[in-house]
Design brief:
By secondary structure, the chain is α/β, with parallel strands linked by helices. Helices cover 23% and strands 17% of the residues. It is built from 10 helices and 16 strands.
Length: 423
């Protein structure tokens, strides 16, 4: 059985954490197993191809019961389309489909499969109407996602069959958002937790930010406890990861809590602060708890990893997907590092327009913008903060980085225009 919970931060005392987890546009990448050099969706607002095969489809075909609770955002607005979650391998869907609507933490309605479910308490949701400092008069969307997940696990436990399951809990906190609107005016929290409510010198948005992460930690703990309560823990693998680097949106400043630590950049940066985050995994009796791995892994590797855990042969997987299975590492073995890990971003957060590329290979990190600028090269082993560009001293590594970038990138319409083909 596989559980997958992408969201901000949680402390897991059972399992392995990876300090070399690299990612970008995560929901799409883990769904399709393709990196951003040739995936379908390369920026918000685009949708999957009708014929695209997801990991949910593969697992469902292998006999898995499947569900997604939270944000989808990869389909058209037509619930009958072939890009809808229930057409992409999920038996159950509850949550947002629209990227912008997911900014509203107190929506009037959300999707349940292909029907809208309305919440009368949120019809006129606002800071004034929901209550302050507790929003007890309205319903927080994340509370619904957690409750749906726990109910799903309870239902699974009541069945007499041995059908495995895949649960994708796609939370949005602590993304910037609003109450009753799709704006990004803050980082709404249902309440300020006691340890932060008295921090009078902190801006309110930072108290909310800290509170909502703490509340999310507690809620994920409830899901993990439900696995224990319903006797599902021992044969369930839990993956927990952030969908991007620390953000600076809705008035929150990523530097306030030093969220990027020694890494350069933040959300949407091509530097490590934008694409490198922790990955936490719990696999009882297989993965030793309390260990840290430096194995490099990205969201698109989840496809082959989940298939491997499910016993699905590589020959049965869709052609053209990227990545590799992390299972040998999770079982305590050793693996070679991937040859390279590649990223593309639209409008990266380096005060530039257009788009950019980055590639990590071994301890080298290279960054290039729009094919026009020279490649920046950093030695992460000696310079984790990417402060010193050493491209002039290592021409062979620069040549190799350009080779990886050119091979990985396939031209496609995104970022508002068609980037040139370097070849």
């Amino acid at each position: 059985m596989v559980g997958y919970f992408p969201s901000p931060a949680i402390v897991v005392h059972h399992g392995r954490s990876s300090s070399q987890y690299i990612h970008t546009v995560p929901l799409l990448l883990q769904m399709t197993g393709r990196h951003t050099g040739h995936c379908t969706v390369r920026q918000n607002g685009q949708v999957l191809n009708d014929s695209e095969i997801t990991i949910a489809s593969v697992l469902k075909q292998a006999g898995y019961r499947t569900a997604i609770f939270g944000k989808w955002g990869l389909a058209s607005m037509n619930p009958s389309s072939l890009t809808w979650p229930t057409a992409k391998g999920f038996d159950q869907f509850f949550g947002y489909n629209d990227q912008a609507n997911a900014h509203n933490y107190y929506p009037y309605w959300m999707w349940q499969n292909q029907e809208k479910m309305y919440f009368a308490e949120n019809e006129k949701a606002s800071y004034a109407n929901c209550g302050y400092p507790y929003t007890e008069h309205c319903i927080w969307a994340q509370e619904l996602f957690i409750n749906q997940s726990i109910q799903f696990l309870q239902n699974v436990s009541k069945l007499d069959d041995s059908q495995p399951f895949y649960l994708f809990l796609s939370l949005t906190t602590p993304h910037a958002g609003d109450i009753g609107h799709d704006f990004e005016t803050g980082v709404p929290s249902p309440y300020e937790t006691p340890q932060y409510a008295n921090q009078s010198t902190w801006p309110k948005v930072e108290r909310d930010f800290a509170s909502v992460i703490t509340i999310s930690d507690d809620q994920i703990g409830k899901v993990l406890k439900a696995l224990d309560t319903y006797g599902l823990s021992n044969n369930t693998v839990v993956f927990y990861a952030s969908d991007n680097g620390a953000h600076s949106e809705g008035g929150h400043n990523y530097k306030f809590f030093d969220s990027s630590g020694p890494l350069r950049g933040y959300k949407r940066s091509l530097h490590e602060g934008g694409v490198r985050t922790p990955l936490l995994i719990r696999w009882p009796e297989v993965t030793k708890g309390g260990t840290v791995s430096n194995q490099q892994w990205a969201f698109w590797d989840f496809f082959k990893t989940a298939a491997d855990i499910a016993g699905i042969p590589a020959s049965s997987l869709p052609p053209g997907i990227d990545g590799y299975s992390l299972v040998p590492t999770l079982q305590g073995g050793t693996q070679d590092q991937p040859r390279y890990i590649y990223h593309e971003y639209c409008f990266p957060n380096e005060d530039r327009t257009g788009w950019g590329q980055a590639v990590r290979f071994q301890d080298w990190k290279a960054v290039r913008y729009d094919f026009r600028n020279e490649v920046e090269l950093y030695d992460l082993k000696e310079d984790i903060g990417e402060e010193k560009d050493v491209s002039q001293s290592y021409p062979e590594e620069v040549r190799l980085a350009i080779e990886f970038m050119d091979v990985a990138h396939e031209p496609g319409p995104y970022c508002g225009y068609l980037p040139p083909n370097p070849n």
